[in-house]
């Protein structure tokens, strides 16, 4: 089997409403998994910085504008098969704060995007890797 590597970037985005904190989650149009907005770095623009790719994907897939609040991303890794390739994938998620926009304005790559409170988010996320990334991001968020 042939091997390939992929690197994506994305955001774990929070929104404060009074004293409540909500988190952005997206459902992939094809595999239907619930995850965070993310995508390949530099898929249209070679040499794209990771932070830019992460913000772009949040805007495209999550429908919202956000800002990075912690410079250190959380990395997750997984493998999957595509045709005759085994793909080794690394994804870098940045902690972000919501600025503006509506998750309903997500693009076609996503079936649905919405903000959920922490307990519902953890019940909805499809992948263990993402749940672990969220716990790490939560530590960064709570430390400020
Ligand atoms: P990207 O959004 O980075 O462009 P993609 O849309 O091409 O990626 P992925 O979301 O990486 O594809 O999905 C590829 C495969 O990996 C699917 O089979 C999916 O179920 C699985 N997968 C997606 N996210 C995760 C994850 N966080 N942990 C484990 N497996 C995952």
UniProtKB/TrEMBL annotation:
Q: Name one Pfam family in it.
A: NUDIX
| Residue ranges of domain Nudix hydrolase in the record | 4-138
Show the GO MF annotations. Answer: bis(5'-nucleosyl)-tetraphosphatase (asymmetrical) activity
Q: Which PROSITE patterns match?
A: NUDIX (PS51462), NUDIX_BOX (PS00893)
Q: What is this protein called?
A: Nudix hydrolase domain-containing protein
Q: Which GO terms describe its biological process?
A: AMP biosynthetic process; ATP biosynthetic process
InterPro entries, sorted: NUDIX_hydrolase-like_dom_sf, NUDIX_hydrolase_CS, NUDIX_hydrolase_dom, Nudix_hydrolase_domain
Q: Does the keyword Ribosomal protein apply?
A: no
CDD domains xrefs: NUDIX_Ap6A_hydrolase
Keywords from the named record: Hydrolase
């Amino acid at each position: 089997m042939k091997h390939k590597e992929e690197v994506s970037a994305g955001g774990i985005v929070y929104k404060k409403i009074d004293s409540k904190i909500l988190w952005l989650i997206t459902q992939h149009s094809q595999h239907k998994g619930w995850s965070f907005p993310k995508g390949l770095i530099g898929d249209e623009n070679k040499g794209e910085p990771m932070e830019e790719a992460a913000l772009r994907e949040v805007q495209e897939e999550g429908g919202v504008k956000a800002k990075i609040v912690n410079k250190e991303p959380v990395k997750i890794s997984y493998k999957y098969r595509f045709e005759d390739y085994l793909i080794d994938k690394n994804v870098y998620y940045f902690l972000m704060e919501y600025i503006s926009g509506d998750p309903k304005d997500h693009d076609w790559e996503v079936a649905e995007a919405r903000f959920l409170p922490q307990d519902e988010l953890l019940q909805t996320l499809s992948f263990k890797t993402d749940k672990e990334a969220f716990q790490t991001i939560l530590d960064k968020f709570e430390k400020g």
